[in-house]
Structure formats: structure tokens, C-alpha cells
Amino acid sequence: MKKRGQVTIFIIVAIIIIAMAVLIYLLYPKLKTLIGGDSNNPTAFIQSWLEDPLEEAIEKISLQGGSLNPEHFYLYYDNPVEYLCYTNEYYRTCVVQQPMLKSHIESEIENAIAPEVEACFEDLVDSFENKGYDVIFREGNITVELLPDVIMITLSHELTLTKGDTEKYATFRILFESNLYELVSIARSIIDWEAEYGDADTSLYMAYYRGLKVEKVIKEDGTTIYMLTDKETEDKFQFASRSVAWPM
User: Percent of the chain having pLDDT more than 90?
Assistant: First the structure.
């Protein structure tokens, strides 16, 4: 019995060691950035810096119908949700308010992260100068693209680092995992139904997209709040519409 107990302990310890080894392997790239092991990689530096502010910007924009500061919105639980389709008349279908929704959201994300990008590069330049590098930096443009499963940030900032050898960077590309592209595409389809027929059948979308939850709340003034949620990632996009409203 004693030997069996020892064997059991050895097996448990072995399982714990293997689990820790797998965990370290999976987290190693992130750990390198956090502890500074990858501090000479400008792209890794920028990726680490921008992840949190980018996530915050995406969440805010997504919960407000695609805009940082909505101008025409319905206040839903103290959150301004932008009308993406609207009419102030009764019995009439709505008019699409953001015909280029994807491009609009990309522009809003650019505006949201622009101050963070500036601060990030200031810190990056200081970091390399403190390590004895000669640094030449030229500010460029920020481009945001919503793509399937990811958001790609392209920074056309030029960076030249010299310390013995010279390294030149003309473009930095940062990828952020997000299903916003898919959610916005579905939102655009719902908006088309609202503009054409005055309503959209949420059950049809959930039957076709198994990983999607579509909710809608109809308010007394005829406004409908649509909420799209990816069941796996919990990414969310919500917006307002007022179409074929009936007087109370």
C-alpha cells in the first residue's frame, strides 16, 4: 500500500510538471514581452502597448453602435446607442444612417487609438535611446482594417535604430483578435431588412449562425435595440433602429 501511495504521488507530480511546462510554452511569447526579454523588438513593444487601449476602444465603439461619440442615439441603460437606421415618421421604413458602416468604424478606431500610438512611439524612442541607440523617427499614418477574425493596425511610421549596425523599419503591423468584422457584417444585413421591410427576424440569423446570439428590445417610441453577441468570444455589437413605428 505504501508503494502504491508513492507511485500515485509521483504520477501526480509528473502531471503537474507536464502541465506547467505546457503552460509556460504557450505563454512564453507574452512573458518575453512582459519581462523585457523581447524589448529590442519594436513590433512586440508596440503590440504589447496598444492591446489594452485598443480593446477598450473596440468595446466602447461596439456598444455605442459604431461611434465614439454618437450624435443621433437612443439612451439605453445610460449608454448612447447610435441609430444606424432611422425615421421620425410613423408607418414608414427607416433610412440608413451609416451606409459605409465598416469604413466608419475603422475610422473611429483610428481616432480612438491615435493618442496612444503617439505616446507609444515616444516611449519606444526613449527606451532605445536609453540603451545607447541613435534613433531617427518619422511619424506616419494609422490605418485600421476590419478583417475576418482580426483587426489589423498598420502604422506607416519610420524608425531607424543605429548601434553598430543599423535597423530600419518603415511599417509596423499589429493584429488584434476580434470578431467585429463578422458582427458588423450581420448588423449591416439587419439594417438592410429594417430599411426594406421595417423589421428583421432574429431567429433566422441564429439558425444560420450557430455561434451567434441576436437579441432585440422594442421601446415604446418604436425604437428597436439590436444586440449581437458571439457566444464563444463574447464579442458584442449593438445598435438602434426606428422603422415602421406605430403611434401609441
Answer: 83
Q: How many Cβ atoms from other residues are within 10 Å of residue 11's Cβ?
A: 10
CA distance 94 to 87: 5
What sign does the CA torsion over 41, 42, 43, 49 have? positive
Find out whether 92 and 195 touch, Cβ atoms under 8 Å: no
Tell me which residue range forms the domain holding 4: 1-38
**Per the structure, how many domains does the chain have?**
2
177 within 8 A of 194, measured Cβ to Cβ: no
Give the pLDDT confidence of 204-246 residue by residue, as tens digits: 999 999 999 999 999 999 999 999 999 999 999 999 999 999 9
Task: Give, in order, the Cα–Cα distances in Å from 241 to each of 13, 91, 203.
Answer: 58, 14, 18
Contacts of 100 (CB under 8 A, 6+ apart): none
Shared-domain flag, residues 34 and 62:
no
Report yes or no on 103 lying in a domain. Answer: yes
Cα angle 39-44-47, degrees, rounded to a multiple of 5? 130
- Is residue 86, in this structure, part of any structural domain at all? yes
